[in-house]
Amino acid sequence: MILNKKSLEEGISLLNSEIFYKKRHRIIFKYILILYSNDKKIDLLTLESELKKDNMLKKVGGVIYLTYLINNSCDFEHIREYIFLIIEKFIIRYLIKLSCFILFNIRNNKVNILNFLNIIQNNIDNIYLKYTETNLTSLKDLLPQTLENINKKEFIPTGFKKLDNIIIGLQESDLIIIASRPGMGKSSLALSLILNIISRKIPVGLFSLEMSSINIISRLIIFESNITYKKLNTSNLNLKEYNLYKRTINKINNYPLYIDDTPYLSLIDFKNKCRMLIKKYNVKLIVIDYLQLISVDDVKYKNREQEISTISRNIKNIAKELKITIIAISQLSRAVEIRGGYKRPMLSDLRESGAIEQDADIVLLLYRPEYYGFKYWNTENKSICKGEAEIIIAKHRNGKLGKIRLRFIKKKAYFTNI
Asked: Phi, psi at residue 211, to the nearest 5°?
């Protein structure tokens, strides 16, 4: 590797000093990197000189050992295979060390098992991401696969026709943000969308950090049956409504919705649960209600914005890595309330907006002027806004922006097409 430029560049791009088992090899590699970074020629003389300068030559076995290494260099044509063999041996040693760490802590009862599982998963994820083969690929190699993906690409329809016309449905690996001020109905919009999707037998995972699973199922029954919330919760149903209730239960019983209403959810927990949902239930969409309630374990941030930045970036990375659509509900800041006029939300109103706005592929802002007591959509054409809502497509990474209107059925807190 030392005497061959191509092999040297290959090795430096894939290896680091911690991978080597012997200390002398770690030191030699470190000094090869120093010479390389200073754009100096790397051979026996320059390496010897650099090591001697720091009194490190004896520690690596002197000139005799350096000469031995150079004379016993491997076949440069197969350098990549040898590099990955070294990495493989390092990973085996790492896993043995990790196994000993696990065994020691379990035997000494020094662990909270859920936190310990997260630590183990994090260690394995880190080693996987750091030492698996690079994803850098030429356009020529990627083009056939890209064309194949375009031809077979599937989009999940939201069930809102005008919205689908603009965003062309939900796409794999996208992070979509639904945001509004409290009381606008963002959770109801997410549930309405979920119902549209699961009624087509497309599996969905829902992480609800505020609303319980019982309340979610109750809402779905109300959506599907048209029975009011009050009647459903007081069981004050007439015979016709009771029969409708039974038919609705039978109907939604087979809907592929998987709910996690754990009030505390860390990023590591979220990623692990997403993996399980995809593997076990072939889930195609994940919904988080809501983003600001996810936590980052064992990390302290200077401010809330930094924490939200970490959360949104990681959620986007999870969507990309697991090749799944993620919808996250988010809050808008109070700037909307202070604003004059019709208080229509803007992208800059996203709470901790910098990070979320950057990471999201699509941002949908929910607006109901009726909530603020307005009778019309605007002062110009006096279009009545009662029972209607507006979805503002404020960001669309791969397409156009726009606005669409939906019907809002207040007694059910349900959104549907106009």
From this structure: -85, 135
- Separation between Cα atoms, residue 17 and residue 68, nearest integer Å: 20
Q: pLDDT of 292-326, one tens digit each? A: 888 776 556 667 777 788 888 889 989 998 999 99
Question: How far apart, in whole angstroms, are the C-alpha atoms of residue 116 and residue 120?
Answer: 6
Instruction: Give every CB contact of residue 325 below 8 A, 6+ residues apart in sequence.
Output: 156, 170, 171, 172, 173, 174, 176, 284, 285, 286, 319
Q: What is the C-alpha to C-alpha distance for residues 249 and 55, in angstroms, rounded to an integer? A: 79
| Alpha-carbon 361 to chain mean position | 12
3-state secondary structure of 143: helix
Tokens representing 178 are 């639904």
The sign one gets for the Cα dihedral 91, 125, 97, 16 is: positive
* Residue 305 neighbours by CB under 8 Å, 6+ apart: 352, 354, 355
CA pair distance 264, 115, nearest whole angstrom: 13
pTM of the entire structure? 0.68
All domains of the chain in start order, with CATH: 5-131 (1.10.860.10), 155-417 (3.40.50.300)
